[in-house]
Design a protein that fits this description.
- Helix content is 42%, strand content 18%.
- It is globular.
- It has a single domain, classed as 2-Layer Sandwich (Nucleotidyltransferase, domain 5), CATH 3.30.420.10.
- The N terminus is likely disordered.
- It is α/β, with parallel strands linked by helices and 208 residues long.
- α5 links the parallel β4 and β5.
Amino acid sequence: MIWNFFKRVFGFKKTVTLPKNKYDFVAIDFETANNRKTSICSCGIITIKDGQIIEKKHFLIRPKVLEFYKRNTQIHGITKDDVKDQPTFDKIWPEIKTYINNELVVAHNASFDLGVLKAVLDQYHLDYPNIEYLCTVQLARKTIKDSDNHKLNTLAEYFGIDLKHHDALSDAQACALLVCKICEKQNQTIREVVLQNHIKFKKLTSKL
């Protein structure tokens, strides 16, 4: 009876081995108020441990220059009134940093998300986090050959992942689950998939 309890709760088999798809990472997504990279107005973070979502975090952020373009609001639905009383990025960076520092960070179109992160860190003269990062567009292109394209909404539909597109938390979650689905499909850890497909992890430095 004791063995059945542990088997049911932890998924143990009589020959106990570590799961093949054991992997940890953090998915992140940013939305901006206008065309300036420093205009972050929303941030979504999903923490994955051993292939499971263990934490979700969403921030509304007041850009230093409070200017929203109509086109941006049409995309993500966030307005000036939504963020006018929210903290600026420098005030919430210490909390955001606790989620991503010393972690593998994934983002869909990482050059955008890590580019805006770098820009706003420079704007407030904040230190860069110590991270490796991976673009899931690149990962999907290498591993998913029968999808119409490699946009996040297309891949979410391909894998049956719920998505409210351009909601930062929903985008981050879809990105995280996309990595999990790819790893499950390949029956490999994220680092094994990356190595096998000759993809490089990048560092957040002065050049992206």
